[in-house]
Amino acid sequence: MKSEMSNHYPPLRKGTELELDVYALAFGGRGIARLENFVVFVEGALPQERVRARINRVKSSFAEATVSEIITPSPFRQVARCPLFGQCGGCKLQNLDYQEQIAQKQKHVEEAFAHIAGVKPPQILPIIPSPETWRYRNKMEMAFGVRADGSLAIGFHTPGDYRKVLDVPECFLQPEILDKVVTYLREELGSLYRKAPARYAPYDPTRHTGFFRHLVMRYSQATKEFLVAVLTYDGEWPECEELAARFMKEFPQCRGFTWGINRGVSDVARMEEKRFQLGEGWIEEVLGELTYRVSTFSFFQTNSAGAKLLYDVVKDFAELTGRERVLDAYCGTGSIGIYLARSAAQIVGIELVREAIWDARHNARRNGLENCLFLAGEMRDVLPTVGTIVGARFDRLVVDPPRGGMDKKSLRYLIALAAPLIVYVSCNPTTLARDTATLAEAGYVAEIAQPVDLFPHTHHVESVVKFRKRK
Fold first, then answer.
1. Residues classed as catalytic
2. Of 111, 134, 242, 451, most Cβ neighbours within 10 A?
3. What is the pTM of this model?
């Protein structure tokens, strides 16, 4: 094949079509093929497929392509359940058999440690599958947009173009009741948009104009109750109170309806200012014997049944005897720390979102725990002083950072605490491997890792790793 190409390798140009054998999935969900040692990432291809693909981007060490024809389908290929599959980028692996999904995720974790961390890989246990593969999400964030016919859309940004919103009549990752909520609000808010299009236009992320911006829904698998928040740009909404009352009557399972303002430039569903609330701003979720209050915007694992399996691994890896002082970094609503509290002497949690800290403190009281202290603030600001606040050293550190991993300064402060054992929870194998390398330089050995799938039909995977400090 090389003789047919130019002297410069890679010999590919944008628009070239060629046949490729796909042997694996990359983290992100694209198929991986090779031309000798040159990697081609193929959108829409699955492992063990032969495809015809069109090159759409060429770099020095890899190319990107899109499938134009499946010549030999993968034995793991299946018909996607969602009719919007391929248009919505929310769950790109729906057409891959679930057992093969988790097999590929296992490989992602193994390869991240083998090729990125630059240290001896830990023992990696077989991945724990999600208890449910459909309707498992307890939180959904949707955007408002305009459909082709000019009516109001509620759904997700289309892949590669954040300006457009794909209308989603039904999402198989959320509970069915939330599909009905979306249908109801599409009609109610769409009516306002039809009557006053200048006033109630969906938010335009390029011009930073418009009104309706995000729909946030949070659901309890335990109680079957839910919360709804409509986030808008600045402006008045005189019909809100009446609409909320009708909505709560239509959906008695809804504990609270909130209208909030989001003026931020970035496309993040956050509430800067609360304008109106009818009902409560929280629901309760149950993990094992523990009950948690969870507010609309607080962090809580989005797969409740899977979260218990994840926390069981954390508890096992922490090796608690009842005498340990545990730091729970990025604690959210205190879910991990509270899950460990009855097996530890003290739990100290740190979280940026103040609303989540209020939930965490309530959750400790709700479960009769008096050995929990939760602190609000930036990790890099609180970590240097937390030892002084507590008045003692930590025996265990539990870390569950955002997808981007820990920032360098916070990780340095965490290492300076010199705890003999760290349990690191991550939803991104790449950043986990990066932080593993930093911890290794500081004298920590990654002993064992446990992948857990909390996100069926997506490429995301959780991992729990036990680090022990060398003596």
1. 427
2. 451
3. 0.92
